[in-house]
């Protein structure tokens, strides 16, 4: 039987989560030799996911250094992947989404004349500086890729509008749903004293994430002030905020939210406890991209703390509402969902546009067909 070597490349926790079910699908598919290369653009948070899904990389570039810049990441990844591709010669390189590793992985493969498959292709916000640098990473990766695995019809249309042939675009759903459905359990037990003491049955728990570069400074300050007002206004609300390790975010969070007993500032969570607290929460406030895909699968309304989103299908489906970074607007929209059960149910029961948990199967099937296995 003809076989092909497929190398999956990623460097951050979100990429690892979304690539993990695809790697497992590749490993069990006859005719495919699966290889894994991590750049470790993020180190500790990446390793947690590798352990959870029992993934052992064939190559680990281990590039992360304290205080690294985007330029540092770009140059180290390009040099490291160039050597890996030159020596191992995969038939196809798979990259995911929009990180610096994604763009540079596609570029390094192009330099070696190796075809690239782009998982989670076709997302667009329409603003090259928001999110930064992710939006430009997506655009550049599109131009370098051969196969484009689009989660939704909207993503398909974005790619087609960018001049990509429909013969090379596959609508697959999002692999994040594949990963999510494998690890969420109603009986999950947290190993965290703060979370274990929360009364999820009688309290409306708001889970918040906030870390985007474009929100640093005044926007983030306004977000935190809105959350403070929410917590002080509604006695039945508790807020769980896993605070990003960035010192700037840590300092601001402690200064505004640190002394409010119903707001719990905790360390970043591993993927498994995070999605399980997502499952138990009432409402999600986030500037993250992946959470906009995960929470709808669990029936959780999301207020997006950004001025635009590259996931407009979630807005159109009604699972997500973009509320921006204005303090009063955030408070108003959150208050509506906390007090108006009809408005809450309208979002909670809207259909998730990101698929059924079988995206990895579809991607592997497309690869098999394209390579004639």
TrEMBL record:
Signal peptide: none annotated. InterPro entries: UDP_GlcNAc_Epimerase_2_dom (IPR003331), WecB-like (IPR029767). Pfam families: Epimerase_2 (PF02350). Keywords: Isomerase. One of its GO terms (molecular function) is UDP-N-acetylglucosamine 2-epimerase activity. Its EC number is 5.1.3.14. Residues 24-367 form the UDP-N-acetylglucosamine 2-epimerase domain. Belongs to the UDP-N-acetylglucosamine 2-epimerase family. PANTHER family: UDP-N-ACETYLGLUCOSAMINE 2-EPIMERASE (PTHR43174:SF2). This is UDP-N-acetylglucosamine 2-epimerase (non-hydrolyzing).
């Amino acid at each position: 039987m003809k076989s092909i070597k497929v190398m999956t490349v990623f460097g951050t926790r979100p990429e690892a989560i979304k690539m993990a079910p695809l790697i497992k699908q590749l490993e069990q598919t006859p005719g495919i030799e699966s290889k894994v290369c991590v750049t470790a653009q993020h180190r500790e948070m990446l390793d947690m996911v590798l352990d959870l899904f029992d993934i052992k990389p064939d190559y680990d570039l281990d590039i992360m250094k304290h205080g690294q810049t985007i330029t540092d990441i770009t140059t180290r990844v390009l040099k490291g992947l160039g050597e890996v591709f030159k020596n191992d010669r995969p038939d196809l390189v798979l990259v995911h989404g929009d990180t610096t590793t994604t763009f540079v992985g596609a570029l390094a493969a192009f330099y070696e004349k190796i075809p690239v498959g782009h998982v989670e292709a076709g997302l667009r916000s329409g603003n090259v500086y928001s999110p930064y640098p992710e939006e430009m990473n997506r655009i550049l990766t599109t131009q370098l890729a051969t196969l484009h695995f689009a989660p939704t019809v909207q993503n398909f249309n974005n790619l087609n509008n960018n001049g990509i042939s429909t013969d090379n675009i596959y609508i697959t759903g999002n692999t994040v749903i594949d990963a999510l459905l494998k690890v969420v359990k109603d009986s999950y037990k947290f190993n965290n004293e703060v979370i274990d003491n929360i009364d999820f049955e009688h309290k409306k728990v708001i889970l918040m994430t906030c870390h985007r570069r474009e929100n640093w400074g005044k926007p983030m300050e306004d977000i935190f002030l809105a959350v403070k007002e929410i917590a002080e206004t509604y006695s039945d609300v508790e807020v769980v905020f896993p605070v990003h390790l960035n010192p700037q975010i840590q300092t601001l969070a402690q200064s505004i939210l640190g002394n409010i007993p119903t707001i719990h500032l905790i360390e970043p969570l591993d993927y498994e406890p995070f999605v399980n607290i997502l499952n138990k929460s009432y409402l999600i406030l986030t500037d993250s991209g992946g959470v906009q895909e995960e929470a709808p699968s669990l029936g959780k309304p999301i207020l997006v703390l950004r001025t635009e989103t590259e996931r407009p299908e979630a807005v159109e489906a009604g699972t997500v509402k973009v509320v921006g970074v204005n303090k009063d607007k955030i408070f108003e929209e959150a208050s509506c969902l906390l007090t108006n059960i009809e408005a809450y149910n309208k979002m909670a029961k809207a259909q998730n546009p990101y698929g059924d948990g079988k995206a990895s199967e579809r991607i592997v099937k497309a690869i098999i067909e394209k390579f004639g296995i």
